[in-house]
Amino acid sequence: MKFLKLKSSIGLALSTIREHKMRAFLTVLGVIIGTGTIIGVGSILAGLDGAITGILRSFGTSTLIVFKFPIGVRFGNLSDEERMRKPLTYENAVAIAERCPSVDHVSPYLFPPQTFGARFDKIRYKGNDMYNIQMGGTEEGYAAGGSNGDMLYGRFFSDVENQHHMPVVVIGEDVKKALFSGENPVGKEVDVNGHVLEVVGVMGRPSASLPGQNDTRVLLPYFTMKKLFPSAKENMLIVVAQEGKLAVAQDEVAMVLRQERRVAYNKPDNFAITTSEQMVEDFRKVTAVTTIVMVVLSSIGLLVGGIGVMNIMLVSVTERTREIGIRKAIGAQRFDIVVQFLTEAVVLTGLGGVAGMLFGYMISLLSRLAFPGLPTSVPLWAVAMGIVVSVGIGLFFGIWPANKAARLDPVDALRYE
């Protein structure tokens, strides 16, 4: 019997919505926008999380990244002490390779001078210029990382070229497209910050890269970089531990660097050792805050939608006062009237929630089309939240109008015109 009453209430609610389509749409517009925003932004955050964590984990589960301060999401929140730390050196890399038995390989990466200040690096070929390049000095082992990209043209520079300070360079895929168009750049000479270098290879875009990110790498042999830019001092060390010995290698690297950098036993490290999982954890702390902000902002649209639902339900009660009087006169209980109007409110906001989910899915789809590298996906938590919130709004904001309708005196309601 209760099921039949509920079915009848839903049918009546749908009939009322069909009679006032535009009014119903405008009423739940806030619900549609709020639910759509939750699902759309949730899908973008899920895709961004997948892309970023893929990039960070591409360093490998056995890789340590060593720099003078933590690399990652804290870059903009460094202390004065961290900013003033002495750079790591090539000799530090040599010491780690010689004195850490759990370390398999160490690759230094030399940044150009003033990398973290105002600097305008550029590469030039026959009148074509490209600015804001990612220039660095490294060694042959850089190409061994599978996520760094395969060679599209030519080869990577060798250890012999590094040791003999040869003026050679390897460029990224988008540098080749910008400067050389359809021609093969191997063997061509380019000007990098006033220095003439021969292109020996072109690397493809890294397999793990940010959506829409350009591959503007300009890589020189480490000692060539040191020779051409003697003021370059900032080194990052990429340490690869032996299989299953990451924690031991991290302790060994920390011990060696504390000795190399003359850190007193009672002082904290003046360098930072980061693993890919630590960077993933830091990134997810930031996205958690972003998610909370997104939910709060979306709640404003949902609140507006809820107020609209309550307003239109009050109007509906006024318009149907005589109908309510007739139902009460033929035996309807207060509970029946409450269920009727609450069902109408829930059906209204539920349909708004479904429309919002479709709107959010469209946002996700358009984001994926605009950024093919962004693996957007609608997370289950966003769908569940959209459904629960839209139905909850109908229940919460429909209580007052439903109670008002249930409290009407049947005699007064029948006399209402």
Number of helices, counting only DSSP H or I runs of 4 residues or more: 14
Mean pLDDT comes to 79
Distance between the termini: 33 Å
Residue runs with pLDDT of under 50 for 5 or more positions: none
List the helices and strands and how they pair.
Blueprint: H1 2-19, H2 21-27, H3 29-57, E1 63-67, H4 80-83, H5 90-99, E2 103-110, E3 122-125, E4 128-131, E5 134-138, E6 151-154, H6 159-163, E7 168-172, H7 173-180, E8 189-192, E9 195-203, E10 217-221, H8 222-228, E11 235-241, H9 246-260, E12 272-275, H10 276-319, H11 321-329, H12 334-370, H13 380-406, H14 410-415
Helix pairs in contact: 1-12, 2-10, 3-10, 3-12, 3-13, 5-9, 10-12, 10-13, 12-13
Task: Describe, in plain words, how this protein is organized in 3D.
- With 417 residues, the chain is α+β, with helices and mostly antiparallel strands.
- The chain has 2 domains: 188 residues, no CATH class; 214 residues, no CATH class.
- It is built from 14 helices and 12 strands.
- The strands form 2 sheets. Strands 3, 4, 5, 6, 7, 8, 9 and 10 form an 8-stranded mixed β-sheet that branches. It has a 4-stranded antiparallel β-sheet with strand order 2-11-1-12.
- β3 and β4 form a beta hairpin.
- It starts with a helix and ends with a helix.
- The mean pLDDT is 79.
Short synopsis of the structure:
The protein is of the alpha+beta class and 417 residues long. The protein is 54% helix and 15% strand. Helix 3 (29-57) runs antiparallel to helix 13 and helix 5 packs across helix 9.
